[in-house]
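Board notes (copied after class):
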Amino acid sequence: MNKGLCVYPGSFDPITSGHLDIIERGAGIFEHVIVAVLHNPAKTGVFPIEQRLDMLRRACGHLPNVSFDCFDGLLVDYMRKKQAHVVLRGLRAVTDFENEFQMAQLNRQMAPEVETLFLMTAPEHAYVSSSAVREIGQFGGDITPLVPACIADDVIRALKR
């Protein structure tokens, strides 16, 4: 396993300023970060996977050690395929911790070689979530402080449809 590599998985539907905070900080810790968009057939996202990947690439263009991918199935299988040792996860509040802790324990049961590293989001992003961005945007609210500036117009247009 490559200990200088981590995977930051998520739906990123769309990427938020909180996600970007975690990606930037992860890029400062690890030699390489793979931002992996989960394709969950049970959920229909607002943004197609390719559009999410495009928004991620644009928002993270200033980070040369970050790459982008998508996967389906179990995260631990993806981790093994990529020979990655660390899952990076962001925590906004105590409410995130319970679900994330459970997922980390399940992953550890299936793949003891994979560690989960939790980073607390910066306080100014603690209330930001993709679902909140979608809801605010669909009702015409201002989402510009909640998403990276380079994708804000695309997100606004998509949510107004």
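Comment from the instructor: The mean pLDDT is 94. The beta strands are 2-10, 32-38, 66-71, 84-91, 115-120.
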